[in-house]
């Protein structure tokens, strides 16, 4: 069972999944492996980590396409070359077309840095602080056509502490993202 992970930046969630797959020996326990890491940005830091791990990497620059549909069609072609059982969005900062989402229905997952359904969209940590939330967190969910909506697979909660900035809260949430994303992907693979 091949896992294809899409990133746009640092790729710490991707790296956490790769490391967990190694530590838990997903090849043996789940018959699964991370087959490819795909980025829409050539300078995404996570690409170097993936290459060091011997994982195939692909770059597809969205700016080379004149519509979302054209980009998503090319993206699907790249992904499908790796015959994915599960497609993982890990800080992939592109909105996907309904056609793309439908193609991978039930096996396309995303992580969002809030306790959904609260705070869909961007700037989740600042918005949680501004709202006076005492708790924040992260959510892994199946991707459906609507942004940041879709069946919830895993969530984790962290406290919002006095004096938190968006950055300090984001760092606390990110450590939990790494835990729940690997767990959710393993759960999904088990059901495949
Ligand atoms: C994470 O906070 C994720 O929830 C959000 O973007 C960030 C990506 O971080 N969508 P990384 O690239 O996995 O380090």
UniProtKB/TrEMBL annotation:
N(1)-(5-phospho-beta-D-ribosyl)glycinamide binds at residues 11-13. (6R)-10-formyltetrahydrofolate binds at residues 68, 93-96, 110. Keywords: Purine biosynthesis, Transferase. GO terms for molecular function: phosphoribosylglycinamide formyltransferase activity. The active site is at 112 (proton donor). It catalyses: N(1)-(5-phospho-beta-D-ribosyl)glycinamide + (6R)-10-formyltetrahydrofolate = N(2)-formyl-N(1)-(5-phospho-beta-D-ribosyl)glycinamide + (6S)-5,6,7,8-tetrahydrofolate + H(+). Gene3D superfamilies: Formyl transferase, N-terminal domain (3.40.50.170). It is an enzyme of class 2 (transferase). The record marks 148 as: Raises pKa of active site His. One of its GO terms (cellular component) is cytosol. InterPro entries: Formyl_transf_N, Formyl_transf_N_sf, GART, GART_AS. Its EC number is 2.1.2.2. Pathway: Purine metabolism; IMP biosynthesis via de novo pathway; N(2)-formyl-N(1)-(5-phospho-D-ribosyl)glycinamide from N(1)-(5-phospho-D-ribosyl)glycinamide (10-formyl THF route): step 1/1. It comes from the Bacteria. Residues 1-185 form the Formyl transferase N-terminal domain. GO terms for biological process: 'de novo' IMP biosynthetic process. Catalyzes the transfer of a formyl group from 10-formyltetrahydrofolate to 5-phospho-ribosyl-glycinamide (GAR), producing 5-phospho-ribosyl-N-formylglycinamide (FGAR) and tetrahydrofolate. Belongs to the GART family. This is Phosphoribosylglycinamide formyltransferase. It comes from Alicycliphilus denitrificans (strain DSM 14773 / CIP 107495 / K601). The lineage of its organism: Bacteria, Pseudomonadati, Pseudomonadota, Betaproteobacteria, Burkholderiales.
